Amino acid sequence: MNAHVPPLSPSPAVTVSGLRRSYGERTVISGLNLRIERGEFVALLGESGCGKTTLLRALAGLDPIQGGRIDAPRRPAVVFQEHRLLPWDSLWRNVSLGMTGHDLRERATAALTEVGLGNRLDDWPRNLSGGQAQRVALARALVQEPELLLLDEPFAALDALTRIRMHALVKELVARHQPGVLLVTHDVDEAIALADRILVMRSGAIAFEHEAVTPIAAASIRSRLLEELGVAATTEAA
User: Fold this and answer.
1) 76-100: b (≥16 Cβ within 10 Å) or e
2) Engineered SS bond to 141: which of 71, 77, 209, 215, CB 3.0-4.6 Å?
3) What pTM does this model have?
4) How far apart are CA 37 and CA 219, in angstroms?
5) Spelled out in words, what is the top-level CATH class assigned to the domain 21-76+148-163+180-238?
């Protein structure tokens, strides 16, 4: 995992101040503050319904907010659990979707090469495995050189071995491109393996935070995270 958390800088990937998001009379996020630096990998854990995906969608500009402020230098890139590739377009056209310029194929080629699919430019999404499709989704996100990369459980539907390979790839790509990253996940081990900083969200706010998990401390922080998530007793009993 990344051992170094970037120092605070004048221009973070995103800053959230006093965020509030409601659905009708139900408040999902209340008074939330968050700052993610360029090059920092942050994982967000929490029970279903605690507001994790709501926060990610707000940061992505996909949902309105009712209070507070989100400051992000540019529109972020998002990778969802489903790859959301257009089945009628080739892989390079999927990667270049929304881009402008005269070198779209070249830029898409470079991005697909980074994720190990540089020889599949003119192939179709239907011919890809789940892991390969998520590689294309990552290429599509990173070709934009985003300052903020939002990952909404992008590995949840993959088998165990493919997830391990994707973890290694994401760490490599983030180190190379240096976006700030927010990963929403239910997987404690995934958060420990990838993140510089791990947050636990509860009742619409950040309830717990831990930075720079070293391999030596991984077991103890895993227990603490499970406790924060309210599943430690179940895990120990199992």
Assistant:
1) bbbbbbebebeeeebbbbbbbeeee
2) 77
3) 0.85
4) 26
5) alpha beta
